[in-house]
Amino acid sequence: xxxxxxxxxxxxxxxxxxxxxxxxxxxxxxxxxxxxxxxxxxxxxxxxxxxxxxxxxxxxxxxxxxxxxxxxxxxxxxxxxxxxxxxxxxxxxxxxxxxxxxxxxxxxxxxxxxxxxxxxxxxxxxxxxxxxxxxxxxxxxxxxxxxxxxxxxxxxxxxxxxxxxxxxxxxxxxxxxxxxxxxxxxxxxxxxxxxxxxxxxxxxxxxxxxxxxxxxxxxxxxxxxxxxxxxxxxxxxxxxxxxxxxxxxxxxxxxxxxxxxxxxxxxxxxxxxxxxxxxxxxxxxxxxxxxxxxxxxxxxxxxxxxxxxxxxxxxxxxxxxxxxxxxxxxxxxx
Amino acid sequence: xxxxxxxxxxxxxxxxxxxxxxxxxxxxxxxxxxxxxxxxxxxxxxxxxxxxxxxxxxxxxxxxxxxxxxxxxxxxxxxxxxxxxxxxxxxxxxxxxxxxxxxxxxxxxxxxxxxxxxxxxxxxxxxxxxxxxxxxxxxxxxxxxxxxxxxxxxxxxxxxxxxxxxxxxxxxxxxxxxxxxxxxxxxxxxxxxxxxxxxxxxxxxxxxxxxxxxxxxxxxxxxxxxxxxxxxxxxxxxxxxxxxxxxxxxxxxxxxxxxxxxxxxxxxxxxxxxxxxxx
Lengths: 334, 279
Fold this sequence. Notes:
The complex is a heterodimer.
Chain A: H1 3-31, H2 36-41, H3 49-58, H4 65-77, E1 83-84, E2 89-90, H5 91-130, H6 134-148, H7 152-166, H8 184-222, H9 225-232, H10 237-249, H11 251-275, H12 280-289, H13 293-321, H14 329-333
Antiparallel strand pairs in A: 1-2
Chain B: H1 2-9, H2 12-34, H3 67-103, H4 105-120, H5 123-133, H6 138-149, H7 151-164, H8 168-175, H9 180-191, H10 193-216, H11 227-234, H12 242-270, H13 272-276
């Protein structure tokens, strides 16, 4: 299959997922207890009959459900995600305003988790395979097991207690010092300092996943014949690991990297809530507190769309890294 | 059965996990006997430090509620939500996976697209949206967790069915004219049970983590004290009262860790060949 038809079929799949999310959103509001218009308006609109009436008309609530769905889809296709009554702003504007902060946090956590996770996974696999200093392997794996069981939001709180309250090394809340008026490099430094705790807390769980994945995959590849051949012909151990084993062992890691972003989007809600990070996760928490359902569903839609885009990117990357993989091959690897 | 137990007991971590889990289960049953008062009641001075007063070994929160009572009652909610939502997700996942794997063809294609869709969208965000829209209650929480956790089961069961379907004993059952439903239930499913049981144990652990995250965000059942809610309430008191957030977190960590260890122990005991291969 050539690249273009591969790309088109993947894009088609991605669009179907996005459409599915829109339809879920549509039905969630109608399945919720009460009139969709009052649900949409939330508690905010309870006292404002005019607003509820306006919503009713906007959504065509007197028309059949299929027509209503049509109206809704048309709105989303025009990037109209509704209006946040609480914030007096269109939902899309609110989300776009917060997106950069979330991107910053997620890309930081992504890089942190994958770099450290793969590194620790390689070290663990190597010490286990060579049967020297096996305690390193045990220590890394126990650490990963512990992180697997730790609630993300609790880890964040504990990090604040230790590094901000007790030691006073790092700022605990926000993205930059309020009112400090830093510019240029000083501002970048300030943001970087604020980023440390949220990034590490968000990345820790995923790091544990990468450690286990990399280690298992490395150990599997290490047992293969071509690795034995390489060792037998006298390739230095380091080179065997780096060139022969790691390159082949990284495929499942890349598969997971695509999946991870979806989970990370959820994790960001928790991390941003704890650290008052001004991204869409925090916005989602505020929308929950204010019962601003238009905003809530808008954020759900945007995060899903983002995940779909990232998945598409991983699929394409995957095809470049391993041309053997056909379109359906990803399931076998997952 | 005895050889299974022996293999399980060879794994020290799995045994430790089982002991911890049994303790948590015991505590959750004893909670109403040990603490007749609701954990929401203000019973003492606010912010008693842990270990300072023997009547309140884990201290009290900012409203004078007993943290020990909260921890005991929280165990009930965590276990209840973990087990029930996993059971619901299992039933649904097995149903979808069995039909897809057994029927194959277009039905399989359609069902797997459906499954993939639910696997792609961000799970926690979806759970948050569902619980918020349907108002937080134990039912909406269990429902939301089930909705986001069935897809891996469906894929697992489908895979098992695809291979088992080809085996001779299943072919034999087809030849002697057993009905598909009977073949699925009595021939294939029992042979696919061990990976399902292992993944169920990990699902319970994940469900407990998700429940705690939901109640941390204020989406817990208003009538039930839960560990996630306790940590959420402690968030604003982090400078004054570290213990309020520490203990419930340790409780979650221990419970989830114990269940994960049990899952790994079950996996080793059920697939001894895998163990010997060195993985």
